[in-house]
Design goal:
101 residues; 2 strands
């Protein structure tokens, strides 16, 4: 019998099953933890009514902005040539304000 076929006839012992179980459980714990962290830190892509949310690069780094109410209206008025995402949020904000009037 060739050596390659001989290793396939070997019976899986108690120690082998223990190693497989420990590695499987460890993998499950790591994947579960990673999924939990990803779910807890996931930021929603939707913003509340009357709010504008965006990320912007600056001279000293970047920032994530979440502006609501009158500050959001002022922000939209002061940035007419902003990114398309901010323009869409400002348009939604204007439509919401027009609907309330």
């Amino acid at each position: 019998m060739p050596a390659e076929a001989q290793r396939l006839t070997r019976v899986v012992g108690r120690r082998d099953r223990l190693v497989i179980a420990v590695v499987s459980i460890g993998t499950a714990v790591v994947l579960g933890s990673a999924l939990a962290v990803a779910e807890l830190t996931h930021r929603s892509t939707t913003t509340a009514t009357g709010c504008v949310q965006f990320a912007e690069a600056g001279v000293l780094g970047g920032g994530a902005w979440h502006v609501c109410g009158d500050a959001a209206v002022r922000l939209c008025a002061s940035r007419p040539t902003s990114t398309p995402a901010v323009q869409r949020q400002c348009a939604r904000l204007e439509n919401t304000a027009a609907a309330r009037s």
